[in-house]
Write a structure and sequence with these properties.
Arc Repressor Mutant, subunit A, 3-stranded antiparallel β-sheet, 6 helices, globular
């Protein structure tokens, strides 16, 4: 029984790490409005590098969340869209994104309070160094 639970945790963890990373969330939210071209996604998802966008789209395609359609032309036209699985994921991803936007001021205030109470050290600074 423990092995079954452990394998489920690993599988769920792998899926959540893919669909829950910030770039995937932002890309899925942008594709919720319909198919988009690569450069359009790059422009809409501020701060993402071309390489990171390529890797994220490729991984979302591999997981069956995004489809990629190439239209032969000069230059070739490539459109990305949510698959049926991706559209099913859109609702919880949008809810998570909206929650983050709605609670951003509260979280920033909590961070400022925490940092002020802990001598302005961030959790990263208080970790022991690796050997």
């Amino acid at each position: 029984m423990a092995d079954h639970a452990s394998s489920n945790c690993k599988a769920v963890s792998e899926i959540l790490s893919r669909v829950g990373d910030k770039w995937s969330v932002l890309i899925i939210m942008q594709l919720g409005g319909g198919s988009r071209r690569f450069n359009e996604i790059k422009r809409l998802v501020g701060g993402i590098s071309q390489r990171m966008l390529t890797l994220t789209l490729r991984n979302l395609e591999r997981d069956g969340i995004v489809s990629r359609k190439v239209t032969p032309s000069i230059p070739p036209r490539v459109d990305y869209a949510l698959t049926e699985l991706g559209r099913d994921l859109l609702e919880p991803v949008q809810a998570l994104g909206q929650w983050a936007i709605r609670h951003q001021p509260c979280i920033q205030a909590a961070r400022a309070h925490f940092d002020g109470s802990n001598g302005a050290e961030t959790p990263q600074e208080t970790r022991p160094s690796r050997g």
